[in-house]
Amino acid sequence: MKLGFACKYFDSQAKQPYPFKTTTRTRFLGLDNDARATLLHQLAHHNLQNLFLTLQQLAKQPEALRMMRIGSDLLPLYTVPEATQLYGVLLRDLKPLLEQCGALARANNIRLSFHPGQYTVLASDNEGVVDRAIEDVEYHATCAVLMGYGRQFQDFKINIHMNGKKGIDGFRAAFHRLSPEARNMLTVENDEISCSLDDVLQARELCPVVLDIHHHWVKENQFIQADDARIALIMESWRGVQPVLHYSIAQEGIIPDHGFPDQQELAVSKSKLRAHSDYYFNQTLNDWALSFTAFDIMCEVKMKNLARDRLYQYAVERGVITAK
């Protein structure tokens, strides 16, 4: 079992030693063409160098901690048409840095992923939204391919939600418009509002299903168990690759620090239940998440790798993970 963190790497003082930089579309479009190219190159070069430094830190850590989600702003504004054109030239210079990051990750068995944002909706009933969603997925796929991925099924994960009024039919139609590399990397996740686990399981023949156990609880008020019949279907969708689940819990003060919370007893809105905590403070829920021993766990928690590290120490103490 690997335990990952999302996007931001914190040092022991909860500071980011290797942050990404980005810019606004307004600022970018206000520049002349040469200044636009210079800005994008500086930002992307900085981000790739810091990604490499982050990966170097992960390579020194125990095997179980070598997993991370890369921020989507790795190449800032890539899908803005004026920027896309410039990147066509800039990528020739950036490619060695991307290759370096991928080589380091593979050499040290670091599992990598992207998670495009909430507006990447392949199942939308608005064709313009679908077109932009496909562009966004392909941007993330381009980054991964330039790092040397997309060659085998699920050698890299690009995870999205399946929300959208067209449901599985719309998702399927958009999925088949993706490049072979993007289809190799795409995964789909249940959400807490519109798309249940049963909904996303309809896509399991197209791509792997990522189980978000917190989303499932928020939507269904149910703590799904590792022996639930649907878990076998999720695992089958990964076709022999280690499956991934997402683990988060509601914020401190919203749920108790022990036991399984019941939404009816909490009497708070689902919007409050959705918000992620700083740390994993409820050991009952930690034991529950760690009971999914066949899965790698992406830790979706505000204190990122610091909270992940505490969960790792707890898992080692409980004998779920062997420290090495």
Radius of gyration computed on alpha carbons: 20 Å
Shape: globular
Number of helices: 13
Structural class category: alpha/beta
Portion in strands: 5-15%
Question: Major sheet: size, sense and barrel closure?
Answer: 8 strands, parallel, barrel
- Total strand count, please? 8
Strand order of the largest sheet: 1-2-3-4-5-6-7-8
Overall residue-averaged pLDDT value:
97
Low-confidence stretches: none
Distance between the termini: 12 Å
Helical residue percent band: 40-55%
Series of secondary-structure elements, N-terminal to C-terminal:
EHHEHEHEHHEHEHHEHHHEH
What does this protein structure show overall?
This protein is α/β, with parallel strands linked by helices. Helix content is 45%, strand content 10%. The protein is built from 13 helices and eight strands. Strands 1-2-3-4-5-6-7-8 form an eight-stranded parallel beta barrel, surrounded by four helices. α4 (127-146) links the parallel β3 (111-114) and β4 (157-161). α2 (33-59) packs parallel to α3. It is globular. The two termini are 12 Å apart. The model has no long low-confidence stretch (mean pLDDT 97).
Write the layout of secondary structure elements.
Elements: E1 3-6, H1 25-29, H2 33-59, E2 67-69, H3 81-107, E3 111-114, H4 127-146, E4 157-161, H5 167-175, H6 180-185, E5 186-189, H7 197-200, E6 209-212, H8 213-220, H9 229-237, E7 244-247, H10 263-266, H11 270-274, H12 283-290, E8 296-299, H13 304-317
Parallel strand pairs: 1-2, 1-8, 2-3, 3-4, 4-5, 5-6, 6-7, 7-8
Helix pairs in contact: 2-3
